[in-house]
């Protein structure tokens, strides 16, 4: 079977060259100590940092597309996402559905609260909905539940698993939480001393 995401000899500081193949429908955990290179790996997949090697999504070479066009397909949600406008609502193209807001224990009124008045957890959940609103094909998550309590983290996990089932998509998720990794991941890429090795979650 033809892999949908093909990574060939990817090298980004501080990681050694690495190759891998992935199918739509997979959720891949990225693990390793703080500073090991998890975020740099995700940045390279999103074409947001200098790197060597080849990355293809559905036979489309990353290097053949302008970075904004690639990032519309392969989209990164950083651990501390930026906000540019006064309210969360102004950041959405379509706007989150009531169903998705309720799934994350949010409500429509929060969309009009000034961003600086939102809690860290509210901003993290709204930033996730903002990314999903743009309908990426590959979603790169850097500590997507780091600022949430256990109930909030489980709500995010449930929403993303539903999103993954709805269309042929792929998720890479950087996480430090072993129980979360065991719940979610079919494959785990562990980074240790610059080496990426696949292991069972």
What does this protein structure show overall?
This protein is an alpha/beta fold and 201 residues long. It has a domain of 139 residues: 3-Layer(aba) Sandwich (Rossmann fold), CATH 3.40.50. Helix content is 29%, strand content 25%. It contains 6 helices and 10 strands. The strands form 2 sheets. Strands 6-7-8-3-9-10 form a 6-stranded mixed sheet, with helices on both faces. A 4-stranded antiparallel sheet has the order 2-1-4-5, with no helix packed on it. Strand 7, helix 5 and strand 8 form a beta-alpha-beta unit. The model has no long low-confidence stretch (mean pLDDT 94).
Number of strands: 10
- Strands of the widest sheet, in order across it, are 6-7-8-3-9-10
Shape: globular
Chain oligomer state: single chain
Largest sheet: 6 strands, mixed
Please work out how many helical segments DSSP would assign: 6
**What CATH architecture of the domain at 5-79 and 136-199 would you give?**
3-Layer(aba) Sandwich
State the separation between the terminal residues, measured CA to CA.
Answer: 24 Å
Order of helices and strands: EEEHEEHEHHEHEHEE
**Low-pLDDT stretches:** none
CATH superfamily of the domain at 5-79 and 136-199: P-loop containing nucleotide triphosphate hydrolases
CATH topology of the domain at 5-79 and 136-199: Rossmann fold
Mean pLDDT: 94
Question: Helix share of residues?
Answer: 25-40%
Q: Briefly, what CATH class of the domain at 5-79 and 136-199?
A: Alpha Beta
